Protein backbone atom coordinates (compact mmCIF):
# COMPACT_ATOMS: atom_id res chain seq x y z
CA UNK A 1 0.00 0.00 0.00
CA UNK A 2 1.26 3.49 -0.86
CA UNK A 3 1.53 5.25 2.52
CA UNK A 4 1.67 8.93 3.35
CA UNK A 5 5.36 8.59 4.22
CA UNK A 6 6.01 6.95 0.85
CA UNK A 7 4.29 9.87 -0.84
CA UNK A 8 6.53 12.33 1.00
CA UNK A 9 9.66 10.43 -0.03
CA UNK A 10 8.45 10.36 -3.64
CA UNK A 11 7.95 14.13 -3.60
CA UNK A 12 11.40 14.65 -2.10
CA UNK A 13 12.98 12.43 -4.75
CA UNK A 14 11.25 14.42 -7.48
CA UNK A 15 12.50 17.66 -5.93
CA UNK A 16 16.11 16.48 -5.68
CA UNK A 17 16.13 15.24 -9.31
CA UNK A 18 14.77 18.57 -10.50
CA UNK A 19 17.43 20.45 -8.56
CA UNK A 20 20.20 18.32 -10.05
CA UNK A 21 18.84 18.78 -13.57
CA UNK A 22 18.92 22.54 -12.98
CA UNK A 23 22.66 22.23 -12.28
CA UNK A 24 23.34 21.72 -15.98
CA UNK A 25 20.32 22.81 -17.95
CA UNK A 26 19.65 26.34 -16.71
CA UNK A 27 23.04 27.59 -15.54
CA UNK A 28 25.38 29.60 -17.80
CA UNK A 29 29.13 29.18 -17.60
CA UNK A 30 30.08 30.89 -14.33
CA UNK A 31 32.43 33.84 -14.14
CA UNK A 32 35.98 32.64 -13.55
CA UNK A 33 35.60 29.24 -15.25
CA UNK A 34 36.36 28.92 -18.95
CA UNK A 35 34.17 25.83 -18.97
CA UNK A 36 32.60 23.37 -16.54
CA UNK A 37 33.84 19.79 -16.43
CA UNK A 38 30.84 17.48 -16.51
CA UNK A 39 31.05 14.75 -13.88
CA UNK A 40 28.96 11.84 -15.10
CA UNK A 41 27.70 8.62 -13.53
CA UNK A 42 29.95 5.64 -14.24
CA UNK A 43 27.35 3.56 -16.07
CA UNK A 44 26.61 6.42 -18.51
CA UNK A 45 30.19 6.48 -19.80
CA UNK A 46 31.07 4.69 -23.02
CA UNK A 47 33.38 1.70 -22.54
CA UNK A 48 36.22 3.70 -24.11
CA UNK A 49 35.67 6.51 -21.59
CA UNK A 50 35.69 4.04 -18.70
CA UNK A 51 38.98 2.58 -19.92
CA UNK A 52 40.44 6.07 -20.34
CA UNK A 53 39.66 6.80 -16.70
CA UNK A 54 41.02 3.45 -15.45
CA UNK A 55 44.21 3.96 -17.46
CA UNK A 56 44.62 7.44 -15.98
CA UNK A 57 44.34 5.99 -12.46
CA UNK A 58 46.94 3.35 -13.35
CA UNK A 59 49.13 6.13 -14.72
CA UNK A 60 48.88 7.99 -11.38
CA UNK A 61 49.83 4.74 -9.66
CA UNK A 62 52.99 4.57 -11.78
CA UNK A 63 54.17 8.19 -11.59
CA UNK A 64 56.87 8.91 -8.98
CA UNK A 65 55.80 10.97 -5.96
CA UNK A 66 56.42 14.71 -6.06
CA UNK A 67 57.70 14.50 -2.48
CA UNK A 68 60.53 11.92 -2.43
CA UNK A 69 60.82 12.23 1.36
CA UNK A 70 57.32 10.87 2.02
CA UNK A 71 57.67 7.58 3.90
CA UNK A 72 56.86 4.51 1.77
CA UNK A 73 55.30 6.51 -1.08
CA UNK A 74 56.28 5.18 -4.49
CA UNK A 75 53.72 6.99 -6.65
CA UNK A 76 51.50 10.04 -6.96
CA UNK A 77 48.56 7.80 -6.06
CA UNK A 78 50.39 6.93 -2.84
CA UNK A 79 50.70 10.63 -1.99
CA UNK A 80 46.94 11.07 -2.05
CA UNK A 81 46.54 7.89 -0.02
CA UNK A 82 49.08 9.01 2.59
CA UNK A 83 47.43 12.40 3.09
CA UNK A 84 44.12 10.81 4.01
CA UNK A 85 45.82 8.64 6.63
CA UNK A 86 47.39 11.77 8.09
CA UNK A 87 44.25 13.95 8.10
CA UNK A 88 41.46 11.43 8.71
CA UNK A 89 41.00 12.19 12.40
CA UNK A 90 40.51 15.88 11.60
CA UNK A 91 38.28 15.70 8.53
CA UNK A 92 35.62 13.21 9.64
CA UNK A 93 32.69 13.84 11.99
CA UNK A 94 33.59 17.55 11.82
CA UNK A 95 32.28 20.58 9.96
CA UNK A 96 35.00 20.40 7.30
CA UNK A 97 34.13 16.83 6.25
CA UNK A 98 32.33 17.79 3.05
CA UNK A 99 34.45 20.75 1.87
CA UNK A 100 37.72 18.95 2.66
CA UNK A 101 36.73 15.91 0.61
CA UNK A 102 35.39 18.14 -2.18
CA UNK A 103 38.81 19.76 -2.51
CA UNK A 104 40.63 16.43 -2.10
CA UNK A 105 38.71 14.79 -4.96
CA UNK A 106 39.17 17.90 -7.10
CA UNK A 107 42.95 17.73 -6.64
CA UNK A 108 42.84 14.05 -7.61
CA UNK A 109 40.80 14.94 -10.70
CA UNK A 110 43.34 17.64 -11.59
CA UNK A 111 46.22 15.17 -11.23
CA UNK A 112 44.52 12.68 -13.56
CA UNK A 113 43.99 15.41 -16.14
CA UNK A 114 47.21 17.41 -15.85
CA UNK A 115 49.68 14.60 -15.18
CA UNK A 116 48.13 11.61 -16.94
CA UNK A 117 46.43 13.16 -19.97
CA UNK A 118 42.89 12.26 -18.90
CA UNK A 119 40.43 14.39 -20.87
CA UNK A 120 37.30 13.80 -18.79
CA UNK A 121 36.05 14.63 -15.31
CA UNK A 122 36.06 12.41 -12.25
CA UNK A 123 32.96 10.21 -12.56
CA UNK A 124 30.62 9.37 -9.71
CA UNK A 125 29.01 6.13 -8.60
CA UNK A 126 25.29 6.65 -8.07
CA UNK A 127 24.99 3.76 -5.63
CA UNK A 128 21.34 4.61 -5.03
CA UNK A 129 20.60 3.10 -8.46
CA UNK A 130 22.08 -0.21 -7.31
CA UNK A 131 20.57 -0.04 -3.83
CA UNK A 132 17.09 0.60 -5.26
CA UNK A 133 17.23 -2.53 -7.41
CA UNK A 134 16.45 -6.06 -6.28
CA UNK A 135 19.88 -7.26 -7.40
CA UNK A 136 23.07 -7.53 -5.37
CA UNK A 137 25.27 -4.46 -5.19
CA UNK A 138 28.05 -6.71 -6.50
CA UNK A 139 26.29 -6.60 -9.87
CA UNK A 140 26.91 -2.86 -10.21
CA UNK A 141 28.83 -1.86 -13.35
CA UNK A 142 31.57 -0.37 -11.15
CA UNK A 143 32.57 -3.93 -10.24
CA UNK A 144 32.85 -5.14 -13.83
CA UNK A 145 36.18 -6.97 -14.35
CA UNK A 146 36.82 -5.31 -17.74
CA UNK A 147 35.04 -1.94 -17.80
CA UNK A 148 35.00 -1.40 -14.05
CA UNK A 149 37.19 -1.67 -10.98
CA UNK A 150 37.06 -5.43 -10.52
CA UNK A 151 34.91 -7.44 -8.17
CA UNK A 152 35.06 -9.07 -4.77
CA UNK A 153 37.91 -10.35 -2.66
CA UNK A 154 38.72 -14.05 -2.60
CA UNK A 155 38.11 -15.60 0.83
CA UNK A 156 41.32 -16.51 2.60
CA UNK A 157 43.64 -14.66 0.23
CA UNK A 158 44.57 -11.93 2.71
CA UNK A 159 45.51 -11.88 6.38
CA UNK A 160 46.05 -8.86 8.61
CA UNK A 161 49.66 -8.42 9.78
CA UNK A 162 50.38 -10.22 13.06
CA UNK A 163 49.63 -8.27 16.25
CA UNK A 164 47.64 -5.61 14.38
CA UNK A 165 45.84 -3.29 16.80
CA UNK A 166 42.43 -3.39 15.15
CA UNK A 167 40.98 -0.85 17.61
CA UNK A 168 43.62 1.85 17.11
CA UNK A 169 43.55 1.30 13.33
CA UNK A 170 39.73 1.12 13.21
CA UNK A 171 39.86 -2.18 11.32
CA UNK A 172 36.85 -4.45 10.98
CA UNK A 173 38.49 -7.86 10.32
CA UNK A 174 35.30 -9.22 8.76
CA UNK A 175 35.55 -6.57 6.03
CA UNK A 176 38.94 -7.84 4.86
CA UNK A 177 37.78 -11.11 3.30
CA UNK A 178 40.54 -11.27 0.70
CA UNK A 179 42.37 -9.83 -2.30
CA UNK A 180 40.40 -8.62 -5.32
CA UNK A 181 40.48 -11.46 -7.85
CA UNK A 182 39.92 -9.70 -11.16
CA UNK A 183 39.90 -6.33 -12.86
CA UNK A 184 42.56 -3.70 -13.52
CA UNK A 185 43.76 -3.37 -9.91
CA UNK A 186 43.97 -7.02 -8.84
CA UNK A 187 47.78 -6.98 -8.98
CA UNK A 188 48.28 -3.49 -7.59
CA UNK A 189 50.31 -3.20 -4.38
CA UNK A 190 49.09 -0.73 -1.78
CA UNK A 191 51.77 0.84 0.43
CA UNK A 192 49.51 2.20 3.16
CA UNK A 193 46.92 0.52 5.34
CA UNK A 194 44.99 -1.19 6.59
CA UNK A 195 44.33 1.65 8.98
CA UNK A 196 47.43 3.68 9.80
CA UNK A 197 49.78 0.77 9.10
CA UNK A 198 52.47 1.09 6.45
CA UNK A 199 52.48 -2.32 4.77
CA UNK A 200 52.66 -3.64 1.22
CA UNK A 201 49.46 -5.54 0.50
CA UNK A 202 46.81 -6.26 -2.11
CA UNK A 203 43.57 -4.37 -2.69
CA UNK A 204 40.96 -6.09 -0.53
CA UNK A 205 37.14 -6.12 -0.66
CA UNK A 206 34.13 -7.76 0.92
CA UNK A 207 31.05 -6.48 -0.90
CA UNK A 208 28.01 -6.50 1.38
CA UNK A 209 24.36 -6.01 0.47
CA UNK A 210 23.31 -5.13 4.01
CA UNK A 211 24.62 -1.60 3.38
CA UNK A 212 22.06 -1.01 0.62
CA UNK A 213 19.54 0.37 3.11
CA UNK A 214 21.86 3.34 3.73
CA UNK A 215 22.41 4.02 0.03
CA UNK A 216 18.96 3.99 -1.55
CA UNK A 217 16.94 6.92 -2.89
CA UNK A 218 14.90 7.07 0.30
CA UNK A 219 18.04 7.69 2.37
CA UNK A 220 19.14 10.38 -0.08
CA UNK A 221 15.76 12.11 0.02
CA UNK A 222 15.63 12.07 3.81
CA UNK A 223 19.08 13.67 4.03
CA UNK A 224 18.42 16.44 1.52
CA UNK A 225 15.22 17.57 3.25
CA UNK A 226 17.05 18.51 6.47
CA UNK A 227 17.09 22.27 7.09
CA UNK A 228 20.64 23.00 8.34
CA UNK A 229 24.10 22.09 7.11
CA UNK A 230 25.04 20.35 10.36
CA UNK A 231 21.88 18.22 10.40
CA UNK A 232 22.41 17.34 6.74
CA UNK A 233 26.11 16.54 7.25
CA UNK A 234 25.38 14.22 10.17
CA UNK A 235 22.61 12.42 8.25
CA UNK A 236 24.89 11.97 5.25
CA UNK A 237 28.09 11.03 7.07
CA UNK A 238 27.06 8.88 10.01
CA UNK A 239 29.43 7.79 12.75
CA UNK A 240 32.41 5.55 11.91
CA UNK A 241 32.56 2.01 13.31
CA UNK A 242 29.15 2.16 14.96
CA UNK A 243 25.72 0.78 14.02
CA UNK A 244 24.75 4.35 13.08
CA UNK A 245 25.75 4.04 9.42
CA UNK A 246 24.54 6.53 6.84
CA UNK A 247 25.31 7.14 3.16
CA UNK A 248 28.99 7.83 3.69
CA UNK A 249 29.66 4.80 5.86
CA UNK A 250 27.22 2.67 3.87
CA UNK A 251 29.24 3.19 0.69
CA UNK A 252 32.49 2.38 2.42
CA UNK A 253 31.17 -0.72 4.16
CA UNK A 254 29.20 -1.83 1.10
CA UNK A 255 32.48 -2.22 -0.80
CA UNK A 256 34.38 -3.50 2.23
CA UNK A 257 38.07 -4.28 2.53
CA UNK A 258 40.31 -1.23 2.21
CA UNK A 259 37.29 0.94 1.42
CA UNK A 260 35.80 0.12 4.82
CA UNK A 261 38.67 1.66 6.73
CA UNK A 262 38.46 5.10 8.30
CA UNK A 263 42.10 5.90 7.45
CA UNK A 264 43.16 3.95 4.38
CA UNK A 265 39.98 3.85 2.26
CA UNK A 266 41.48 5.89 -0.65
CA UNK A 267 43.64 2.85 -1.44
CA UNK A 268 40.61 1.60 -3.38
CA UNK A 269 40.15 3.77 -6.51
CA UNK A 270 36.38 3.46 -5.98
CA UNK A 271 36.83 5.88 -3.06
CA UNK A 272 36.92 8.81 -5.49
CA UNK A 273 33.69 7.78 -7.24
CA UNK A 274 31.95 7.25 -3.90
CA UNK A 275 32.97 10.67 -2.60
CA UNK A 276 32.01 12.33 -5.88
CA UNK A 277 28.49 11.01 -5.34
CA UNK A 278 28.46 12.30 -1.75
CA UNK A 279 29.60 15.66 -3.12
CA UNK A 280 26.76 15.48 -5.65
CA UNK A 281 24.23 14.91 -2.84
CA UNK A 282 25.67 17.92 -1.00
CA UNK A 283 25.30 19.92 -4.21
CA UNK A 284 21.62 18.92 -4.36
CA UNK A 285 21.13 20.18 -0.82
CA UNK A 286 23.00 23.42 -1.58
CA UNK A 287 20.83 24.22 -4.59
CA UNK A 288 17.52 23.81 -2.79
CA UNK A 289 17.74 27.25 -1.13
CA UNK A 290 19.89 30.27 -2.09
CA UNK A 291 21.33 30.73 1.40
CA UNK A 292 22.73 27.20 1.45
CA UNK A 293 25.48 27.76 -1.10
CA UNK A 294 27.77 29.22 1.55
CA UNK A 295 26.27 27.65 4.68
CA UNK A 296 28.85 25.91 6.85
CA UNK A 297 29.01 25.01 10.54
CA UNK A 298 30.16 22.35 12.99
CA UNK A 299 33.09 21.68 15.26
CA UNK A 300 36.69 21.59 14.10
CA UNK A 301 37.68 18.42 15.97
CA UNK A 302 35.83 15.47 17.46
CA UNK A 303 37.11 16.12 20.98
CA UNK A 304 37.50 19.45 22.77
CA UNK A 305 39.02 21.93 22.69
CA UNK A 306 37.59 22.84 19.31
CA UNK A 307 36.46 25.92 17.43
CA UNK A 308 33.51 26.47 15.14
CA UNK A 309 34.15 25.76 11.48
CA UNK A 310 33.52 28.87 9.38
CA UNK A 311 34.04 29.91 5.76
CA UNK A 312 37.50 31.13 6.73
CA UNK A 313 38.53 27.79 8.23
CA UNK A 314 41.63 26.42 6.41
CA UNK A 315 41.57 23.27 4.30
CA UNK A 316 44.99 21.71 4.83
CA UNK A 317 46.08 19.51 1.93
CA UNK A 318 49.62 18.86 3.13
CA UNK A 319 52.04 18.56 0.23
CA UNK A 320 49.28 18.09 -2.36
CA UNK A 321 48.29 21.75 -2.67
CA UNK A 322 48.23 25.12 -0.97
CA UNK A 323 45.97 25.60 2.03
CA UNK A 324 42.82 27.53 1.11
CA UNK A 325 39.76 28.66 3.10
CA UNK A 326 36.55 26.64 2.97
CA UNK A 327 34.76 29.49 1.18
CA UNK A 328 36.87 28.86 -1.93
CA UNK A 329 35.35 25.41 -2.54
CA UNK A 330 31.73 26.02 -1.56
CA UNK A 331 30.55 26.72 -5.13
CA UNK A 332 31.42 24.02 -7.65
CA UNK A 333 30.69 26.45 -10.51
CA UNK A 334 33.61 28.67 -9.47
CA UNK A 335 37.40 28.21 -9.36
CA UNK A 336 39.20 26.14 -8.27
CA UNK A 337 36.35 23.66 -8.85
CA UNK A 338 34.78 24.49 -12.22
CA UNK A 339 32.70 21.33 -12.57
CA UNK A 340 29.08 20.27 -12.51
CA UNK A 341 27.09 17.03 -12.23
CA UNK A 342 25.09 15.48 -15.05
UniProtKB/TrEMBL annotation:
InterPro entries hit by this protein: Di-copper_centre_dom_sf, Tyrosinase/Hemocyanin, Tyrosinase_Cu-bd
Origin superkingdom: Eukaryota
Any Pfam family hit: Tyrosinase
Keywords recorded for this protein, A-Z: Copper, Metal-binding, Signal
Statement: the UniProt record of this protein carries the keyword Disulfide bond: no
All copies of domain Tyrosinase copper-binding, residue ranges: 92-109, 268-279
GO molecular function: metal ion binding; oxidoreductase activity
Residues of the signal peptide: 1-21
PANTHER family, A to Z: TYROSINASE FAMILY MEMBER (PTHR11474), TYROSINASE-LIKE PROTEIN TYR-1-RELATED (PTHR11474:SF126)
Protein name: Tyrosinase copper-binding domain-containing protein
Organism: Hebeloma cylindrosporum
Amino acid sequence: MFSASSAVVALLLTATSRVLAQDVETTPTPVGCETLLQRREWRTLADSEKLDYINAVKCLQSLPPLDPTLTAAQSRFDEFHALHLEKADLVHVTGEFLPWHRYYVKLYEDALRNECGYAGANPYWAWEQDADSASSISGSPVFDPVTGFGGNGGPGTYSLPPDTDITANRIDPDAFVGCVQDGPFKDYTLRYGPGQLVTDHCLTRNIRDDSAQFLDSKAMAEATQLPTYEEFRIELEGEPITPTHKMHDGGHYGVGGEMSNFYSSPGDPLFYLHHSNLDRVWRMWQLMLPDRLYEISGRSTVDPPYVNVTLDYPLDMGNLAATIPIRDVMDIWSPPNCYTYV
